[in-house]
Amino acid sequence: MRESWILFFSLLIVSLSSCEESLPPRNDPSTFLKASFRATYVYSPAMNDVVFQVSVINGFDETLEGPLDLDGFVLIKSTEHPQSQKTITISPSDLIHGFRDPHTGMLILNPGDSVIFQSTWDFTDDLFRYLPLTAFHYSTDLTCTQRLIADPESFSVYGKVKLYKQSGYGTTNSSFAFRHIDRWIPPNECKTSPGVLVTAFWTEYIYNQEENDVRVLLSAKNKVGDGISGILNLDGTVVMRSIRDSTVHKTFVISPANLVHGQYNPATGALTIAGNDSVIFGFVWDFTDDASRDLRTSFFRYLPDNSCDGSHQRSIALPEYFDLTSRWSITASSGYAITHGTLKVCQIDAWVDPANCPSYVPNPVCLFE
Hints:
Distance between the termini: 106 Å
Radius of gyration: 34 Å
């Protein structure tokens, strides 16, 4: 009898072990949420924003059902300006697609179905900076000269979304790019210039017996064969700002007196820019800033100029870089152009005739560009 019980229990153990091994592995629904991201720049009379959608798909082979326990965000980070990023929390009110019972809050998601959350980004970052004013660079939109269009801006995106208390997170890594337009102009009111104006800066450090300053030239070139004509109606400034110290800056107001090249009739105010010709405005910077400080004594950092041997007859400043920006208009119908440039200058404190330098030694401090 004892041997029969032992055999019975042995058979029972074998039977249970066999059943356990034959069960198929169970798919875990917490790992089957798949997220994706899509962004669209919307430019209309009522909106000038990025509209984005986050989709979450049920990749599980069974229906998911339970109270919505939403936890998610989207992190948008500028590629051109990595210090600027925006974190946007996804909320239940953003749901635009998917069945959620408004009374019970239950969210039902069949296999392969998705829910979609939609929100907008108004171009402010987490530090409340408005990027169109602080980061984007603009120029005249040649298809509509009353407005400005930014250089292409690209963004990386990371998103993370959880739908249920017991579910895992669906994540997405994506990117998008667009060109921001500064204001709404109805398409039927857009003006296109009869020529295409391309603007640019030229800078030169002048060092001789008579001059020790910087010349800044701002030009607008007509890149097509047809001429442009109109009444000169200048509006704009040139701002030079130190990259090392943003409190150091110099502003020039653009006026007809600055015109150094172009077909201009002062009596009538008429300006003509022939095909492939330019108008050029010139400014002279004497190294003073908007606060009337002489930067040669308060800003530049000098070392002995070894290009005049070791006799210390003169000193040369370490390289200083300045960002040049201008928002300017030439005629009432031309629209505004945004022009950017960079100035590198190594200021020399005093004039010494090269013939009086004992010997020439290559200058290790600054190579002029």
